[in-house]
Design goal:
There is one protein chain. This protein is of the alpha/beta class and 309 residues long. It contains ten helices and 15 strands. The strands form three sheets. It has a six-stranded mixed beta sheet with strand order 3-6-9-12-14-15. Strands 1-4-7-10-13 form a five-stranded parallel beta sheet. β14 and β15 form a beta hairpin. α1 packs antiparallel against α2, α3 packs antiparallel against α4 and α4 packs across α5. The termini are far apart.
Length: 309
Amino acid sequence: MPPAGELRHQSPSKDKQSSDTQSTEAAAAAISAAAADAEAAGLWTQIKAEARRDAEAEPALASYLYSTILSHSSLERSISFHLGNKLCSSTLLSTLLYDLFLNTFSSDPSLRNATVADLRAARVRDPACISFSHCLLNYKGFLAIQAHRVSHKLWTQSRKPLALALHSRISDVFAVDIHPAAKIGKGILLDHATGVVVGETAVIGNNVSILHHVTLGGTGKACGDRHPKIGDGCLIGAGATILGNVKIGAGAKVGAGSVVLIDVPCRATAVGNPARLVGGKEKPTIHDEECPGESMDHTSFISEWARQR
């Protein structure tokens, strides 16, 4: 015990160490933010160059490309304008939506970073995607995800009526039904996208690819945490249905048309109706790919699965 009246001081070396750690973390965050800004700026420059090229090659599109891309100073403004016009209705005006989207994207840099990652995902993974500008303007899966990011932000801000109204318009226009509460990472590809349904408590990690008519749903009317959790790098095949609070491990694959009611281990493959694990439940086959969501390989498991049957 220190003598009466004596104050106990923290060691100056500890104060300095804490300060140095905070300074290092702040510097790292600043560098990361600067790199993200540079990446977004570079991608926007490329998108505008692509739009100019297309306008010159196809004069009939010049006015459209000018209003959606070339007249805007940033990716955030372009996508806000485009989504506002896509999702507006007689009672939900495009100007209101433009302001809503722009304010949301501008106030949260992570949303812009996710948009950049989603654009790159479509361009790299989908051989039908001929340019970034083509994805920005025409890929309804990409557009639905960006609009969902805004509806999710509204949901977390307790602006639920507006989030649900936006969700309804997204479903009507893009045929993609993602509840505003669902949590979605970045680098997401909804390939073709038609008929994708994602429930309220679903979670989708980073670098996931999902094809058309995929359902991440519940098993009934039970409340609470009741929807699937999809790990990073997963590939979910067309028409797959994953029901309940099951976990699809990082790097796992779900074959087309499968109905999954069980957990799928990391880098394993589930196929069939009801789905079974390739290699068996006790010792499932673990494939070599760390990120099937990026490789988009849908057929590597077929020969082994056929032998099992």
